From TrEMBL:
Single GO BP term: translation
Description of how the protein assembles with itself and partners: Part of the 50S ribosomal subunit. Contacts protein L20.
Provenance organism: Candidatus Kinetoplastidibacterium galati TCC219
Source lineage: Bacteria, Pseudomonadati, Pseudomonadota, Betaproteobacteria, Candidatus Kinetoplastidibacterium
Descriptive protein name: Large ribosomal subunit protein bL21
Keyword Ribonucleoprotein: yes
C-alpha cells in the first residue's frame, strides 16, 4: 500500500514505515500531523486517483528532525570581463516518519 501526497509544492510517494526528508514544516519534533492533500492511493489491486485530491484520505506523520541539506554552490563568471560571483544556499528540511495511511474503503 502506498500513497502520493503533496506538501511543500512537491509530490512524494510514501509507504507506511518510511522515513522521508521534505520541505520544512513549522512543527515541533515528536509532534504528529495529518497531511490531507492525498493525490492517489494504491492498495493491493485497488487504485484510487483523486480529482485533484482523494476525498476523505489522509496520511498521519510524525516529525523526527529538522535540519539543512548540503550547501549548493553557485558560481557565475563572464569571461574576459573580470566578473565573478560566488553564492551558496542550504535548503531547510523536515525529516518525517509515515505512521498510517487512512482512506474510505467504500470508494
Amino acid at each position: 500500500m502506498y500513497a502520493v501526497v503533496k506538501t511543500g509544492g512537491k509530490q512524494y510517494k510514501v509507504t507506511i514505515g518510511q522515513k522521508l526528508k521534505i520541505e520544512q514544516i513549522p512543527a515541533d519534533i515528536g509532534q504528529e500531523i495529518t497531511l490531507d492533500c492525498v493525490l492517489m492511493i494504491e492498495s493491493g489491486e485497488k487504485m484510487i486517483i483523486g480529482q485533484p485530491t482523494v476525498s476523505g484520505a489522509s496520511v498521519k506523520i510524525a516529525i523526527l528532525n529538522h535540519g539543512k541539506h548540503d550547501k549548493v554552490k553557485i558560481f557565475k563568471i563572464r569571461r574576459r570581463k573580470h566578473y565573478q560571483k560566488h553564492q551558496g544556499h542550504r535548503q531547510k528540511y523536515t525529516e518525517i516518519f509515515i505512521k498510517d495511511i487512512n482512506f474510505n474503503d467504500s470508494i
